[in-house]
Amino acid sequence: MKYSDAIGFLNSLVNYEKLAKPRNGFKLDDIRNLLELAGKPHEKLKHIILVAGTKGKGSVCYMLEAALRGCGMRTGMFLSPHVSTVRERIQIDGRPVSKRRFSHLVEQYVLLVKKQPVSYFELCAAMAFETFARAEVDYAVVEVGLGGRLDATNLAEPDVSVITRIGFDHLRVLGGSIGKIAREKAGIMRYGKPVVIGKQAAVAGWELEHEVHKKGAVLITAAKQVRVWDIRTSDTKVRFSAFGELGAARFSLPLLGRHQVENCRTVLA
Fold it and tell me: Which of 50, 84, 97, 260 has the most CB atoms around its CB within 10 Å?
C-alpha cells in the first residue's frame, strides 16, 4: 500500500477530533472487537504507563519517554492529536514510525476494519499497540485521548497510571462539573497499581483521592513526593531544583512556562 493510500483510508474513518459536535456516546465494544481480531496486541506489552488529564499530558508523555530512553529502555509512545504528521502519534525510541511502516500497518488493518468499523483514533490506538508489541518495547507511554474510563487506550492494563491537572474539557461528553470529569479520568486507575496525580484544584484533587481509595489503587501525589524550589524562567527555558526519592538535582528544560515545572514534578514522582 502506498503512503498516500494509507492516509486516504485513515481519513475515510470518522474523526471525532475534527467534528464540531461531540460524539453521542462512548463505548469500547468496537475497539475491543478490532483488537480481538488483531490478536490482542495490547495484551502483549511488557510495561504500560497510561497518562490522562486536561493539561500537560502531552508534555508529561514526552518527558517520561525521554527519561526511560535515557535509562537505556526501548520505548514506545502514543500521542494525540498530531501536529505535522499522523506518524507522530506512534513513536519508537523517540522517533515517529516511517512512512513504509505506517503504510504496512494500515494495510494490515484494512480488512479487519471492514469486519469491525472503528474511528480514526481507535485505529491509531490499535496500530500503536501492534507496533509496540512487534518492537518488544520495554515501556509503552500511552496518552489517553478523551476522558479515561471509556477511552480506547484504557483497554490496555497500565503498570502505572498518571493524571495531570484536570480542567473543564469536553463538558458535553465528560460531564458538567470538575467532579464528574475527575471521575471519568479516574477510570484509568487499577487496583493495587500506583497512580501519580499531578497538581490539582481542590475539588478535582479530593475527587481523585476518593476514587483512588474506592478502586484500591496506590496513591502517589506529585506535590508531596517531589519538592521543587528556585524556579527561574527565560525566553527559551525554565530551570529549577528538585528533591525526591532519588535525591536532589538541578533541572533545565528547553520549554516555556512555569507550568512545565509541575509537569516535570509529576514525571519525577
Answer: 50
Q: Does residue 197 lie within any of the structural domains?
A: yes
Q: What pLDDT, in 10s, does the model give residues 149-203?
A: 889 999 999 999 999 998 775 555 555 688 888 899 999 999 999 999 999 989 8
Q: Which residue, of 225, 241, 257, is where some domain finishes?
A: 225
Among 208, 255, 205, 251, which residue's Cα sits nearest to residue 228?
251
CA distance 86 to 106: 12
pLDDT in tens, 99-135: 999 999 999 999 999 999 999 999 999 999 999 999 9
Is 19 part of any domain? no
